[in-house]
Design a protein that fits this description.
The protein is α/β, with parallel strands linked by helices. Helices cover about 40% and strands about 15% of the residues. The strands form three sheets. It has an eight-stranded parallel beta barrel, surrounded by five helices. A two-stranded parallel ribbon has the order 6-8. Helix 14 links the parallel strand 9 and strand 10. The longest helix has 21 residues. The protein is globular. It starts with 14 loop residues before the first strand and ends in an 11-residue tail after the last helix. It binds beta-D-glucopyranose.
Amino acid sequence: MTTVLSARTFPPGFAWGVSVGAHQTEGGNVASDWWHRENEPGTSVAERCGDAVDSYHRWREDFDLAAGAGFTDYRFGIERSRIEPADGFVSLAALDHYRRMVEGAVERGLRPTVTLHHFTVPLWFAAGGGWTGRNATERFLRYIDALQPVLDAGVERIMTINEPNILAVFPKLTASGQLASGLPEPDAGLTGILIDVHRAAVARIRERHPRIPVGWGVSVQDYRAAPGAETARDAYAESRDAVFLRASAGDDFVGVQAYTGGVVGVDGEPVLVGDVPRTLTGWEFLPDALGGAVRRVSRLLPGVPIVVTENGVAVSEDRRRIQYTTGALASLRRAMDDGADVRGYFHWSLLDNWEWGHWEPTFGLVSVDRATFERTPKPSLAWLGSLAPPAVPIDS
Ligand code: BGC
């Protein structure tokens, strides 16, 4: 059955957002570990992030584009290396910047979702061992405490850590200098640490900001089982996402970040597929992956509302983005019809931005001229914005 999408496909009040990350869009995050990495001699980072797309200065334009297209929600990151560029120093100017962003979103009718940690950390924190270093959790809680004026300025939803399961793969990825296709197994030690950090962060946020819903966003692929391989598939998914999803039990929501998927065979290994359509990141072009990922999360984590905090596709032709997103949203609607409790959808991404070492994979609803930073909406921006469900009336 074909689903015809409209502004009535999803229920009133369903969050309709776009998603961006701080480091990938802001530019000039000179105090971060990734800035250091891209500038060190013999770097394995293929292309510099540099000025990114200058959203640190152009966030108003970005918000205007999203609000103007009809979106109701906006997810952006707070860059910790700007808040704490040196150990023990909190930049009041940076706090003020992010406070103005939160207020600027609210003024435009956009509900701000903020990410506290999206892959980058301050260089001083990385040099001290990063998440495996001494007092890492206490230092993260100290950062959360410092964010009080930002969080209390009107934040709608907080995500502690973006894709902890990808973060826990980083030691393997950075050793080879690239994102391999397929997903290596997350580091077990880091997995435990990140879960503990998240639980401590949720507790701290609930104590200080009891009004603001909190959760995290897990990368979830639609892992399907080859005939008879259900147990092998579940074992494959266990360390790659299930352990992180179960750690969301008791949270106000779980963020699902889904792009693609794959089949796991009886031997517990991914089944190699040959000649299938692929995106600019090399991933299989699989619109239905969103519905499949959401169904699996809903089974694993009953009782925790789901928010799709990332879904999108890196393609050069915008009509392929619309085609992909149409399929993704239809699969999401079907998963909801079958009982998944989904509260919102955020598209990755508003802007073409820096894809962790590469500029070629374009995920944006808006393209950006890398010399002038001029933003040019693609047809998909107005198309997706027009599907925004109506807001819930205040007295409902
Ligand atoms: C990340 C983003 C990334 C996107 C597309 C997610 O893994 O949160 O930073 O750009 O997927 O690869």
